[in-house]
Amino acid sequence: MSGQTSRLRLYLLRFAYLGNFVGLGLTVWPEIISHTGAWDPVKGAAFSFWAALSALSGFGIRYPLKMLPLLLLQLLYKSIWLIAVYLPLRSAGQSTGLTKAMVIGVVVDLIVIPWPYVVAHYVKPRGDQWR
């Protein structure tokens, strides 16, 4: 399975998963553990998503290609955020501290994701049977 993906690319993937595992983990899990009172539902959903992403990224360190959908999900949600949230804010003359992290995340994902592997394993093959 990994014969089509270079060892360097596998280590780049592992580094991205490690960044999610440690970076998100150190930010999100203490907030979840020490939080008191009721969560705002949207903020609670965001923190829950990031906690799950950080935890599952631990598997990506060991299985970088099998966990590739995590990075694709991350690329997609950050790209959507930049288009749907950042651009309107920018047009209104406002900003947010998340912009830099989102842009860096998109750039890193675009670089580390092995696109030939994605095409060969997710785009070209026939889909699973419906029945």
Explain briefly what this protein structure is.
The chain contains 5 helices and no strands. The protein is an all-alpha fold.
Describe the structure.
With 131 residues, this protein is mostly helical. 75% of the residues lie in helices and 0% in strands. It contains 5 helices and no strands.
Q: Helical element count?
A: 5
How would you describe the shape?
globular
Number of strands: 0
Radius of gyration, Cα only, in angstroms? 17 Å
Distance from first to last alpha carbon: 27 Å
What is the ordering of alpha helices and beta strands?
Answer: HHHHH
Question: Which structural class do you get from the secondary structure elements?
Answer: mainly alpha
The unreliable regions are none
Mean pLDDT: 94
Q: Share of helix among residues? A: over 70%
- Largest sheet, described in full? none
Task: Report strand %.
Answer: under 5%
Properties at a glance:
131 residues, mainly alpha, 5 helices, 75% helix, globular
Strand-helix topology:
Layout: H1 7-34, H2 41-62, H3 68-91, H4 98-112, H5 115-123
Helix pairs in contact: 1-2, 3-4
